[in-house]
Amino acid sequence: MSEAGTGFVTSYGRRLVYRRSGDGPLLVCHPGGPGFSGAEFGDLAGLDARLTLVLLDPRGTGGSDPPEDPTAYSLDDYVSDLEEVRRHLEVERVNLLGFSHGGMVTMAYACTHPERVERLVLANTLARFGKAQQDEAERAIAERADEPWHAEAVAAIQAEDEGAYETPGEMTRLWRSMGPLYFARWDEGARAFLDETSGMGNIESLQLFNANPPDLVGDLGRITAPTLVLTGERDFICGPASAREIAGAIAGARLVIIPEAGHFTYYEQPERFAAEVGDFLTGAPA
User: Fold this and answer.
1) What is the residue range of 177's domain?
2) Strands (E), 220-266
3) pTM assigned to the model
4) What sign has the CA pseudo-torsion 18, 107, 177, 184?
5) What is the CATH number of the domain that holds 91?
6) Gap between the terminal Cα atoms of the chain
């Protein structure tokens, strides 16, 4: 099943859409937000040259249907959808990549269905937003206080935290204001990447997440699959503190911190990102 194109899964009477490309070992990729579609991956650093990518639009994003219950955006709900995707793909065990919030989904899946995960890639994600993560974020934000966009970005983060948005358009405008903080270097290329790959699919999932963020740390010991934990050295929100915590809690996990990269490591350091992920999944030496 290496045909390129768009497919869909029926999960509990709803359509989940995905984009498939490439050839090689299968890798199912869950994007972040929550609220972003698989479009935020772009070409995922060109990994379809080595892998068959399945880029999922989670429920309520892209071409995927929202749930009938507007509160059905818990990690358990996303995990159920991933299990339907695995069954649809007709594989006993699946390679998973979770980015940002998608990393929380794939960690929860690997805790719930450890026997179904072949290999796990956790990219720029976190298991909780605790004191270490809060301190790291505050330091990273303060270090960029001289940037001309800084005040607007900080105001946008505060507005998101307070839920001061009512429509996807309003949240997207906030996201673009805070966007510079997510890159090691804010330039025309980063602006174009943000414009082309990001768009808030729904706000309900984000509001629910922010109201009650999960804490997965105590469950991570249940993950048995070989795991790669990867982040950017300058990722202010899912950075080294989070990556080290996750890698320390999963037996045998490999930790990679990529210099000169923020949250979107696959965009800012595509060659390194593709090499680390591709080698990990194909069994090539690190």
Assistant:
1) 137-197
2) 227-232, 254-258
3) 0.95
4) negative
5) 3.40.50.1820
6) 28
